[in-house]
């Protein structure tokens, strides 16, 4: 992916492979160790107009975000912003919307990521999300919205 940044076919296949690699928990820390998170995020920015790349990228990031070390890297590399950009760019693509919500929900386990979501007005973007009608997708979206609206003592998303 790094050697063929300008090859759409390489990137498309690379994102699909990266998502598949990240399905397995044992691969998630090595992906981060090899710079995979920054590669995903850099190339998501380059191929913003490609919905499939955005969906695969958000899916891979969501799986990577199950590891606390990866949450730190994702947050510091502006992963929240990239996923929100994907949602804004592809408002009518349920796959992008669902996978971005999947990723953002995973990141709500990391308080600095939640602060970043607040700063980037993620709640307004998420409220507009049009995910598939599947029960799991709907539940994920509802849970994400609920977590972002939470006003308990953690300081998350207090209403202005």
Write the layout of secondary structure elements.
Blueprint: H1 8-22, H2 28-33, H3 36-46, H4 51-64, H5 68-76, H6 79-89, H7 94-107, H8 111-119, H9 122-127, H10 135-149
Helix pairs in contact: 1-4, 3-4, 4-7, 6-7, 7-10
Structure, explained:
The chain is an all-alpha fold and 160 residues long. It has helices at 8-22, 28-33, 36-46, 51-64, 68-76, 79-89, 94-107, 111-119, 122-127, 135-149.
Structure summarized in a few sentences:
The chain is built from ten helices and no strands.
Keywords summarizing the entry:
single chain; 160 residues; mainly alpha; 10 helices; globular; disordered C terminus
Low-confidence stretches: 151-160
Query: What's the average pLDDT?
Result: 93
Helix fraction, binned, reads 55-70%
Give the percentage of residues in beta strands. Answer: under 5%
Q: How many extended strands?
A: 0
Structural class: mainly alpha
What is the 3D form? globular
Largest sheet features: none
With helices defined by DSSP (H or I, 4 residues minimum), what is the helix count? 10
**What would you report as the Rg, rounded to the nearest angstrom?**
15 Å
**SSE order, as H and E?**
HHHHHHHHHH
Distance between the termini: 43 Å
């Amino acid at each position: 992916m790094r050697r063929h940044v300008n090859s759409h076919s390489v990137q498309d296949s690379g994102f699909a492979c990266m998502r598949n690699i990240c399905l397995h928990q044992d691969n998630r820390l090595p992906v981060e160790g090899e710079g995979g998170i920054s590669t995903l995020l850099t190339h998501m920015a380059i191929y913003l107009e490609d919905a499939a790349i955005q969906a695969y990228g958000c899916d891979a990031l969501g799986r990577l975000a199950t590891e606390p070390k990866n949450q730190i890297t994702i947050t510091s590399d502006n992963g929240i912003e990239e996923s929100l950009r994907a949602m804004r760019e592809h408002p009518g693509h349920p796959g992008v919307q669902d996978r971005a919500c999947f990723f953002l929900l995973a990141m709500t386990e990391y308080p600095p990521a939640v602060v970043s979501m607040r700063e980037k007005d993620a709640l307004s973007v998420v409220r507009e999300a049009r995910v598939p009608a599947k029960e799991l997708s709907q539940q994920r979206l509802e849970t994400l919205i609920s977590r972002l609206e939470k006003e308990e003592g953690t300081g998350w998303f207090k209403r202005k």
